[in-house]
Amino acid sequence: MIGPGEVPRLPRGVRVQPDRVRGGWVLLAPERAVTLDAVGQAILAEVDGSRSFGEICARLAAAFGAPEAQIAEDAGGFLSALRERLFLEVSP
Amino acid sequence: MTRPPIAMLAELTHRCPLACPYCSNPLDLVRGAAEMGTEDWARIFREAAGLGVLQLHLSGGEPAARRDLVDLVAAARAAGLYTNLITSGIGLTAARLKALDAAGLDHVQLSLQGTDAAMADAIGGLEGAFARKLEVARQIGEIGFPLTLNAVLHRRNLHQLPRAIEMALELGARRLEVATVQFHGWALRNRDALMPTREQAREAGRIVAEARARLRGRLVIDYVPADYHGDYPKRCMGGWGSTGLNVAPDGTVLPCHAAQTIPGLEFWSAREVPLARIWAENPAFNAYRGTEWMAEPCRSCERKTKDFGGCRCQAMALAGDAGATDPTCVKSPLHADLAARAGAHAAADAAFVFRPAPGRVAV
C-alpha cells in the first residue's frame, strides 16, 4: 500500500487523455491502453506529482462526500495496482 | 457497428540493416521505391486516430532507415497517438534520438538478437551491431525514454534468457518481452534451425515465472511461449480484426503481418480507401472476425472467445486451411502430429537462411 506522506506520480511515457472515439478517459502506457472508469479517472486527476497520497484522499473525500478511510482503501488499491505494472511511481 | 481498433502497426519500410532469419516481414519484401511518403503516412495516422486507434507502433524493417522518421513521429503525436518506436537501434544516433525526443516519441522498444556480440551479430547478420545497440541503449537511457527490451528467443539463444533478464535491469528497461520465435514469415522457412526443444521451452517458462516473482514492481515481463510445444494456441492479434491492424510500407492494410500468406483474401490500400472503411468493410477483415466463421472443434469450444481458435496464418501454414483450428491446440486433429514434427524440427541440423535486403534477389 501507499503511505499517506508518499507522493504518487505518472512516470515518463504514461499519460491520461480523453478517448475521443469511445468517450471517457484512457491511460496510455508503453504498449498498453487502459480504459478508466469515472472513479479511476477522478483519482488520477488528483495525481499531479506534488500532492501526497494523504492530500489526494482528503480532496477526494471532500469532493465525493465519502469517509476518508474508505477513499484511502479504494484509491490505494487502484494506485498500487498501477504501481505494480510500473504505470505509477511513488516517492517518499 | 464494428468495434474500433486500439493499436496500429505501421511498417514504415521493409529495408533493414539486419537480416534476422526469423524476420516477421513477408518473404516477398516491399521495395524501397514502393514505400509511401511522409504525407501519406501522416494522413493515415490521422485517419487511425479518428477511427479509435490509441497506440501506434512504428516498425519495419528498421524504421530508423526512414529519413523522415522524426517528422512521422511528430505527425503521429499531433494526431493524438501514443508513439512506440520498434527498432534494432541501428541507424539511431544521439542527435537523432534527441530530435525524436523533441518530436514527442513516447516509448522505445529495442530488439535483442543475443546477449553478446558473438550471438547477436551472427543472428542479425551484421558485425558490430551488438556494440552499436548497447551504445544506443545507453543514449536512450540518458534521454529518459521508457524502454522495453524485446528478446526473440529460439534454439540457438534460449540459454541466454537469464542474461537477457539481467541486461533489461542493467539498461533500465521497464519491460522485457521474452518472445519465443513464432513461425511466420522468414521463421517458417528457418524452422529446422530455430525450433526450440521441448526441454528448452519448459525451462524458459520456469525462468520467466521465477523472474516475474523476484522482480515484481521493478520489471514487467511479457512472455510469448513456444506454441508448438504448448497445449493451447495464442490469442493471435486479440482476435482477427478485433483490436489491431497493420499497414505495410506500400499502404496495404492487413489484419496481421502474415495475413498475405492466406490465399483468396483481397487486401485494400490506405492510399485509395479510407482506413475506417477498410476496417469495417474489407471482406478480408470480416473473413475471420468474431466466431461465426468457426468450424468444429472451435465452434462448440468453451475457449472460443478466449483464443479465437488461435492464429489463422498458422492454421493456413500447418493445416492448409485458414479456417481450421490452429494445430497448436490440443483439440486439433493435427496436434499429435505437430508435436512430433516439433521434435523433429528441434532435432534437425540446419543453417540459417537470412532474409535479404529488399530489392536484392531473394535466397
UniProtKB/TrEMBL annotation, chain A:
The lineage of its organism: Bacteria, Pseudomonadati, Pseudomonadota, Alphaproteobacteria, Rhodobacterales. Pathway: Cofactor biosynthesis; pyrroloquinoline quinone biosynthesis. GO terms for molecular function: quinone binding. Keywords: PQQ biosynthesis. Monomer. Interacts with PqqE. Pfam families: PqqD (PF05402). This is Pyrroloquinoline quinone biosynthesis peptide chaperone PqqD. The keyword DNA damage does not apply. GO terms for biological process: pyrroloquinoline quinone biosynthetic process.
TrEMBL record, chain B:
It comes from the Bacteria. [4Fe-4S] cluster binds at residues 16, 20, 23. Pathway: Cofactor biosynthesis; pyrroloquinoline quinone biosynthesis. Binds 1 [4Fe-4S] cluster. The cluster is coordinated with 3 cysteines and an exchangeable S-adenosyl-L-methionine. Residues 2-218 form the Radical SAM core domain. The keyword Magnesium does not apply. Keywords: 4Fe-4S, Iron, Iron-sulfur, Metal-binding, Oxidoreductase, PQQ biosynthesis, S-adenosyl-L-methionine. CDD domains: Radical_SAM (cd01335), SPASM_PqqE (cd21119). PROSITE patterns: RADICAL_SAM (PS51918). It catalyses: [PQQ precursor protein] + S-adenosyl-L-methionine = E-Y cross-linked-[PQQ precursor protein] + 5'-deoxyadenosine + L-methionine + H(+). Interacts with PqqD. The interaction is necessary for activity of PqqE. Belongs to the radical SAM superfamily. PqqE family. Catalyzes the cross-linking of a glutamate residue and a tyrosine residue in the PqqA protein as part of the biosynthesis of pyrroloquinoline quinone (PQQ). This is PqqA peptide cyclase.
